[in-house]
Every structure is written in structure tokens, then in C-alpha cells.
Amino acid sequence: DSQSKLQLVDKHIGVFPDFPKKGILFRDICPLLKDPAALTASIDLFEEHVKKNYPQVEFIVGLDARGFLFGPLLAQRLGIGFILVRKKGKLPGSTVSVAYELEYGTAEVEIQEDAVAPGQKVLLIDDLLATGGTLFAACELMRKQQAEVLGCMVVIELKELNGKDRLKPHSVFSLVRY
Ligand code: PRP
Ligand code: ADE
């Protein structure tokens, strides 16, 4: 059931104090990727959430780099396509970009200009929500391209950084919260 799947996911999140900088408590998804049952459980939970709440979704949009580990697996389950939001300078052709700040630095994300068409319905996915800067920038990209963001999904939400507030009015679905 869902409860045991959530426990399985939770059990496979590692934790490292002071990485990549002093004061950051880093939550590591590598154990989750390494365990096929736990990884399957995480995708099952996302799939259930999407089928129940967003049956109209047309694309899963994943964030560079760790969103790429979950997004395509989920998109395949749903039988829909996957779109990449990448760190700047990695995508060929015409692109659109947005700059943002994160818990330990700054960055810029971009998508190919023709990645989404106006009105298309998307769900964004990443491994982790911290300040929400990354997902906010991705939402901005979607807004620029006039795609409709149905919601955001993450494996891990770090509650004290209030990323959920930053993303309002978009909804955030998380599997585990710390
Ligand atoms: C991490 C994480 C999220 C983001 C969350 O990615 O994977 O994408 O930070 O932080 P925020 O909510 O404060 O924006 P990072 O930028 O470290 O890059 P990576 O995925 O390439 O490791
Ligand atoms: N990205 C931003 N903050 C993070 C954290 N505390 N652990 C893992 N990834 C992160």
C-alpha cells in the first residue's frame, strides 16, 4: 500500500551534514536509485498522484540534473513525453532562459523555445524542494512559453526553507518531508 511505499522511499534517503558547504544538510537520493524496489515505489506514488489529480497532463517537465532521474520513468508510466529544463548552455537551437538563486549558489535554467506550445498542460518534477528557486524559475519558463503548470512534484521537501510558499499558487506534491 501507499504507506509502505512511502516508508520504503524514506528509508532510502541518505543524509550528509555540511555538504556541499558548511551548514547545509544534504539529502541524498543515491540509495533510492540503487534500490529497484524503492525506486519503483517512488514512481508508483507519483503515478498514483498524477492519475488521480491530473489525468489531463500532456508532458512531464524535469529539472537538470536530478529531476532527470525520475521524470522519464514517470512519463513512460503515464504514456506521455518528457521535456528537459537544463542548466544554461546545454541545449541546442533557440532557447529561453531564467536566472535564479538556490540554497548554495546561483544558476540559470533554460528550455528549447519550441519545447512546449501555448496552452499545453505540464507537471514539473525534481528530486528535492529547498528554497523553491529552481522550480520557481522552471515555472517562469513555462509561463514565458504560455504552458499551463498543473503542479510541481518532488521526492523530498525541506519544510523549513518554505519552498512551497515561494511556488504559490502552484501546488507541490512531495513524497517525504524533513
Ligand atoms: C538541487 C536539487 C534541486 C534544487 C533545489 O539541484 O536537485 O534541483 O537544488 O533547491 P532550491 O529549491 O533551493 O532551488 P542543484 O542545483 O544542486 O543541481 P543538480 O541537480 O545538478 O545537482
Ligand atoms: N538542493 C538544495 N538543497 C539541498 C539539500 N539540502 N540536499 C540535497 N539537495 C539540495
Describe the structure.
The protein is of the alpha/beta class and 178 residues long. The protein has a single domain, classed as Rossmann fold. The protein has helices at residues 2-11, 30-34, 36-53, 71-78, 133-144, 163-167, and strands at residues 14-17, 25-28, 59-63, 81-87, 95-102, 105-112, 121-129, 148-157, 172-177. Strands 5-6-4-3-7-8-9 form a 7-stranded mixed sheet, with helices on both faces. Strand 7, helix 5 (133-144) and strand 8 (148-157) form a beta-alpha-beta unit. Helix 1 (2-11) crosses helix 3 (36-53) and helix 3 (36-53) packs across helix 4. It is globular. The model has no long low-confidence stretch (mean pLDDT 97). Bound molecules: 1-O-pyrophosphono-5-O-phosphono-alpha-D-ribofuranose (PRP) and adenine. The site of adenine has 9 residues, from strand 2.
Strand percent estimate: 25-35%
Q: What does the largest sheet look like?
A: 7 strands, mixed
Briefly note the CATH topology name: Rossmann fold
What is the name of the CATH architecture? 3-Layer(aba) Sandwich
Taking the alpha carbons of the first and last residues, their distance comes to 22 Å
Number of strands: 9
Count of separate structural domains = 1
The ordered string of helix (H) and strand (E) elements is: HEEHHEHEEEEHEHE
* Cross-sheet strand order for the largest sheet: 5-6-4-3-7-8-9
Provide the CATH top-level class: Alpha Beta
Ligands, ions, cofactors: 1-O-pyrophosphono-5-O-phosphono-alpha-D-ribofuranose, adenine
Contiguous runs where pLDDT drops below 50 for at least 5 residues: none
Rg to the nearest angstrom? 15 Å
Q: Percent helix among the residues?
A: 25-40%
What characteristic shape results from the CA principal axes?
globular
